[in-house]
Design a protein that fits this description.
CATH superfamily: NAD(P)-binding Rossmann-like Domain
Structural class: alpha/beta
Shape: globular
Strand content: 15-25%
Number of domains: 1
CATH architecture: 3-Layer(aba) Sandwich
CATH topology: Rossmann fold
Radius of gyration: 17 Å
Largest sheet: 7 strands, parallel
Helix content: 40-55%
Distance between the termini: 29 Å
Order of helices and strands: EHEHEHEHEHEHE
C-alpha cells in the first residue's frame, strides 16, 4: 500500500482512465480529489470510492483556468498535509483517422493546445505544493514514439506532453518531485474484444485496471528513483 495519509489529485476523474486510477489510489489509502467539467459523473466515482471505504472529494473544474486550478490545489493541500500525487486524465478532443496532410491545421493543433494548457495549468498548481514539501509525483498519459499512420493531432499531442513531462522533471527534480508518463495503446471498453494490435508482442491491450496499477507503482516509494521516464503499457507495440 501507499504510505498512509497521501493526498492525490486526479483531473479528468469521471473518465474511464481517471476513474480507474482514482479508485486504485483510494484502495491504497490515499485521499483522492477528483475534478472534471461536470459534477454528476464525478460524484458517482467519488461515491463508489467512499462505498468501498475510501476517501474521495469531487469538484467541478475548468482545467484551463489557472486561478481555479490554484484554488483547488490549495484546498486539497489544506485538507491533508500537502499534495503527494497528481494524475491528469483530462480529455484533449483528439483528432484521428486521417493523414496530417488532410485535416485543417486548426483541427490538428486544437488537441495539442488544450493538452499542453491543461497539463501545465494543473501540474503547476500541484507542483508548487510538492516543492514546498520536498517531494511528490506528477503522472500524465503521454507517449509519441508510435509509428502508426493517420493519428492526426493525437500523436502530436502525446509527443508534446512527453516534452512537457521531461522539462518538468528537469526543473522539479532538484526539489524532490518526480515526473513520469504512461504510454498505453488504449484500453477496451466493457464488452469490447480485448485483442491487441497485430504488431504487438502480447495478445491483449491493457485493461483500465492495468493502467491504474502502473500509476500506483509509479506513485509508490519503491519507484522513488524513477523520473523523466515512460511506463510502456503497449504490450510490445512500442518496444524499447
Amino acid at each position: 500500500m501507499l504510505p498512509a495519509g497521501k493526498t492525490a489529485i486526479v483531473h479528468g476523474g469521471s473518465g474511464a482512465v481517471g476513474a480507474a486510477v482514482a479508485r486504485a489510489f483510494a484502495r491504497e489509502g490515499a485521499a483522492v480529489h477528483l475534478t472534471g467539467r461536470t459534477l454528476p459523473p464525478l460524484d458517482d466515482t467519488a461515491r463508489r470510492i467512499r462505498d468501498a471505504g475510501g476517501v474521495a472529494h469531487a469538484a467541478r473544474l475548468d482545467a484551463t483556468d489557472r486561478a481555479a486550478a490554484d484554488r483547488h490545489a490549495d484546498a486539497a493541500a489544506a485538507a491533508g498535509h500537502g499534495i503527494d500525487i497528481y494524475f491528469n486524465a483530462t480529455s484533449h478532443e483528439d483528432v484521428q483517422g486521417s493523414p496530417l496532410l488532410d485535416p485543417a491545421l486548426a483541427d490538428v493543433l486544437r488537441p495539442v493546445t488544450k493538452a499542453v494548457t491543461t497539463t501545465l495549468t494543473t501540474a503547476a498548481a500541484a507542483a508548487r505544493h510538492m516543492v514546498q514539501r520536498g517531494g511528490g509525483v506528477l503522472l500524465v498519459p503521454a507517449g509519441g514514439r508510435e509509428t502508426i499512420p493517420d493519428l492526426g493531432g493525437s500523436h502530436l499531442t502525446w509527443s508534446a506532453l512527453t516534452g512537457v513531462c521531461r522539462q518538468l522533471a528537469a526543473e522539479l527534480g532538484p526539489h524532490g518531485v518526480r515526473v513520469a508518463w504512461l504510454l498505453s495503446p488504449g484500453s477496451p471498453a466493457p464488452g469490447e474484444e480485448n485483442r491487441a494490435d497485430e504488431r504487438a508482442l502480447l495478445a491483449e491491450r491493457p485493461a483500465y485496471e492495468d493502467v491504474a496499477n502502473a500509476a500506483v507503482f509509479a506513485a509508490f516509494d519503491r519507484a522513488r528513483t524513477m523520473t523523466a521516464t515512460e511506463l510502456d503499457l503497449t504490450g510490445g507495440l512500442v518496444p524499447d
